[in-house]
Structures
1.
Amino acid sequence: MGTPKKILIVEDESIVGMAIQDKLELLGYEVPAVIDTGEEAVAEAQAIHPDMVLMDINLAGKMDGIEAAAQIRAQLNTPVIFLTAYADGNTVERVKAIEPHGYLLKPFEENELRAAIEVALYKHQMEKRLKESEQWLATTLSSIGDAVIATDSRGGVKFMNPVAEALTGWTQAQALGKQSSEIFNIINATTRLRCEDPVAQVFEQRITVMLADNTVLVTKTGQEIPIDDSAAPIRDDDGHIIGVVIVFRDVTERKQAEEKLRQYSVELELQNKELDAFAHTVAHDLKSPLSPIIGFADLLSRYQDSVPEELHEGLLVIGKSGRKMINIIHELLLLSQVRRADVRLHPIQMEGIIAEVEQRIGYMIKDHRAEIILPADWPPALGYGPWIEEVWLNYLTNGIKYGGRPPRLELFGTIQQDGMVRFSVSDNGPGLSPQEQARLFTPFTQLGNVRIEGQGLGLSIVHRIITRLGGQVSVTSNGVPGRGCTFSFTLPGTLNGKNSKPG
């Protein structure tokens, strides 16, 4: 058993007080004192801190039991049960004002006394727990960074945390009891019209209501603050709505950041358009003089017998350099096109694309005596034909340049379990280290044993194309000379949907 509860008896009739003390001690309670005046009752309660006070209303001295009980309740929050032989209306009203935990009319039975004490002690314990919970909740709501306003079942303000006070310009003392719509005054930033009251919406719809993105809070002083968040119902144990809690925050900085981002996006788009226009203009201006230079160099180089050998070699260099420059221009324009173009995926005819690539690099295949091995058939996939042609062009060109001597390239395609289709080309050139593989698709990267010449744009373009088409690029190599590398890319299979737009 726990420690006996201490009950202070305040009774001006000593015989009655002693009788009550005997009853309490028989019931297992501790009675530290029996007092007969209100003044002594207050002093004794302050000294011993009893668990309960049994208080007679009519006491000797200037202070009656009701006044003494009021002071004890105010100072110690000790539960009080009144004992009296009188129950007139005026006495009852005075007793009710201090919210006692019980009221017994003399004479009373032992069972009545025990029941009153047990009920009073239990009620006091529950009140204490409730007060602690309320204090914990109030402290929590006051400490969080969001503004919180809570209402009663009629929409009147019952609580505001400091953040809500700061944002609205109303203190909790000023707002208590007022309709939430008067305190939480919100308008639409675009239309300047008053927004529908979220508290009324919650009561009507019985669900959580989100505030619109362009909601503005008008403070008590007329300042406008952009806010967001929600209003939610407060329900009792039976599910009935007994109030609404509004949670909101100041989003001024977020709105400013969004506006700056929007401005940056507009400026960037404008700069990109200007850059694209400049690139096309430069490309046209560069290509125009290059074509006749290459043409005349090739024409003059055919007259091998009519020109000195050194001049003939110079003409070959001019032609080769010119074609290299045109290829760089083409790659830069393609890189720009991939960034800004809006294309849709369609079923592609891989056989036709490969045939076109072989025709474009026929001179390389012949010069290097390259062997290209094709599969019997290609799995169906979705893509954009002109871009896929550029991917294969880069893969096969690299395979021929940096494969074995002579180069041997094997092409194949497989359907993966995730529905994507993997296309690959394996060569018989030197392998790559893991570090080189990781850098291979980076723009302007030139690796010693892979990129001997060129600007390193080709594989970067491949990466950008395949990413735009919803696939991935990869390279595998065991680093063993003669065992080569396998360059791959994936595309959506036709089972994933047709004529879809890439992300």
2.
Amino acid sequence: MGRVTVFTLGGTISARGGDAARMTGQEVLAGLGAPEDVVLRDFRRVPSSTLSFEDLAALADEVREAVAGGSGVVVVQGTDTLEETAFLLDLLCTTEQPIAVTGAMRRPDLPGADGPANLAAALAVAADPACRNLGVLVVLADEIHAARLARKTHTTSLATFASPGAGPLGTVVEGRPRILLRPAVPAALRPLTLDPSVRVALVTLSLGDRGELLDAVDDRFQGLVVAAFGGGHAPAPLVEPLAALARRIPVVLASRTGGGATLTDTYRSPGSEHDLLHHGLIPAGPLDPAKARILLHTLVSSGAAGPSGYDRPRITAAFAHLNGSGLA
């Protein structure tokens, strides 16, 4: 078993009751009997809803430093934005070392608190050589999920994290990881960066939508993700406003359903996926809107968009890389 560096960021696993007080990283680890080769970095003490891109850019820098030194990594944070942190680290931290992200659904002072078990499982994953080359992993409720697939699916369930359409990569049984599946295509695309000053909007379409929120996507934003209906559909009157935006900034078409990939050629009526893609939108494939926003943010940060126009083929290829890769 290898050395593990633990980064604690706060969240429910460290909450002192229902107020803003948070335990230290040392207090979170207390009682687990963590081995001596666990290195603790008390990184932040905040709810995950408060984490910023500045926080995550700094976290990615420190995680890269830790894995470069041969250490596995555990990131401990709140579950509200855990899937976004995990996917972002998957894009920014290319490494063979295991990186596990975990948290808790119940506070330490409540009956059946799940934090200690989740943290113990994540430590086991991060220390196990069998968990290398899997990308960043989400570890809760003794299940091991790929970061790009994992989603929080319930507000209170201890088994809230799932991988729609795929399932977990493995489980933790009696304190030991058992890997059942391996991603056929790694999430890593190329060296990507995160510029906290980049702004990417996320707009969810709804019944009777007239596009007022699209009007607010002005020069403050360098990219847009549209969470559209079904397989990637929008009201016909919104096609031209979306096309106008797509001529200026990258506009990614995702599905608000949260499961399955966006379509490309099943429907051809005005506002269909075929129509929107023909007008310059970029298909998100299987990525849900929140993860599509994370990927687009890193691509824009890495120079895929700029005042002289954006590299639509490159952005399209990046999303296509993760589309339909399946598991093997």
3.
Amino acid sequence: MFKEKINSWNNSKRDKACKMKYLHELNDSMMQISELKQLMGGNSTISSITVDARGIYETLDESRGNMKMYFEENDCEAAPVEVMCSLDYEKTETEMFLNITSEIMHSGFTMLDIGANIGWYTLLASNVYRKEGVNIYSFEPSPITCKRLKKNIELNELPQTRAFNIGLYNEKASLEFYYDIEGSGGSSFVNLREREKVKKIVVDVEKLDDFVEKNGIQSIDFIKCDVEGSELFVFEGGRKVLERDQPVIFSEMLRKWSAKFNYTPNDIIQLMKGIGYECYAIEAENRLRYCPIVTEETVETNYYFLNLEKHRGIIQKYGGQHEVR
């Protein structure tokens, strides 16, 4: 909209008549931008949209910690665009995330965001619990996406939030990775959506257990894991940490994605069961449903793994007392 007008002005005589025409066109374009106000207020979590020297970003309301996120060229399926379209992002999952983290929040709370993308859950936790001084470690293997993640962390001024340009896996290696240009959230170690607009790159991965030991992380309270199909390998590489700290785990599990890696969500459920966890599907904003097995009829794609003893209170409050043994 603006590019054509700027080029027209630069290629004009730049006299008074051209300037007046340019001013009118600029003003008309600005008035069109004002239509974005229709996407704010009411049921929307957006409180403002800002243009600065680094780009365009949206600021969300207090329910989302007044978090800020930049829009990025081509990444049309990213969280900021989804918020504009749906007025929020992963509303049911986000509300449950805030409910459960509030139950276990304390000063020095430590969370791992594995597969952070541009940082929805990283920014959400860091902003909502800013006063508690939460520690967030965010992992994103794509250098392009990780750069955007760090840009958003800087925009929100979050000194205790750190982003690492690595993936977590069950080994230390350099692996092929398919970066989805138009939907970075769908990037993975296989071309999940079989799209043409993907860029094949090589990324570094390591084991969660090794990362925690190397960085001297004493205790982990919460793990969010969404790595587009390779979740099992993340947990295999972090079994020692899971056994040691018994954190609350929030993970995506899709049958169609895990099949691309030759396993099923039930392999994750069994792995977790051996560590003392049970699986709960996110059924609604304030409700979890005990899910001992994923079948063809299972519709949920996001789950919580809760330790039967350590997280008894959460299970009773959100998942039903009858599941606690």
4.
Amino acid sequence: MTPEEIKMVKASWAKVVPISDQAAELFYGRLFEVYPEVKPLFKSDMKEQGRKLMAMIGTAVNGLDNLEPLLGAVKDLGKRHVDYGVKDEDYDKVAECLIWTLNQGLGDEFTDELEAAWVKTYTAVADVMKDGAST
């Protein structure tokens, strides 16, 4: 990612943080509406799950300048997701719903350029998680 893309993602995430509970609700609502087959993968309290998701995204976004220290934890997260029943194709479903959620939350500020930067961000994290899942 370019420094400008990192800056854009961080700035946009800063606008999501104050509405993170609502963003998580939007995200999971969309995920379960469009991909109801993934709902059984979520057995815990969804508010808590939403907080975990937002915290994980925040950690990844804040670490975009230097992802190296996060790689081990992200790989471990991918490994744990295998135990939950997550498959590689589920990452694409999450990506689609994350982008949709960001678009909903940021409105006109969610430009094509910002979307492309978020896709790069998510892809980088998802690829490391998938790598962890396959080890």
